[in-house]
Amino acid sequence: MSDISLDSMLDISLDDIADLPEFLVLPAGAYRATINFEAKKINEHPAVEAKLKVLEVLELAAPDATPPEAGAESSVAYMMDNEFGQGNFKKLVKPLCEHHGLTNLSQVIAASQGMEVVVVTKQRQNKDKTATYLDIVSLQVV
Cβ-count burial of 72 within 10 angstroms (0-12 exposed, 13-18 middle, 19+ buried)? Predict the structure, then answer.
């Protein structure tokens, strides 16, 4: 759709226009998913974003939670300029390092792009309880 000219915009159907991507926070549970990583800056903080794409819901922590559909996407950002972000990122990638037999993070990230994993997740709120975020509690290579 990105190659549509402004002039031809009026000649297309509303159904042909892409929906706005939804920012989904997965319900607490266990998922089979693919993982990808992206280095980025978030409010001037160097960060690594771990992006998950759900392949299958294995278990939900709350029986009344709505399971996300296969293909649903969610992510976790790790701010690399503080000990909590670094420590949580280290915990996340340790199983990937062991699987690949690597310790260099850029090599591990490159080797892990699109890899199938099982993750256990939880949700956390900011201190004002105005926003909910995803946390990855554990990761296992499939």
Answer: middle
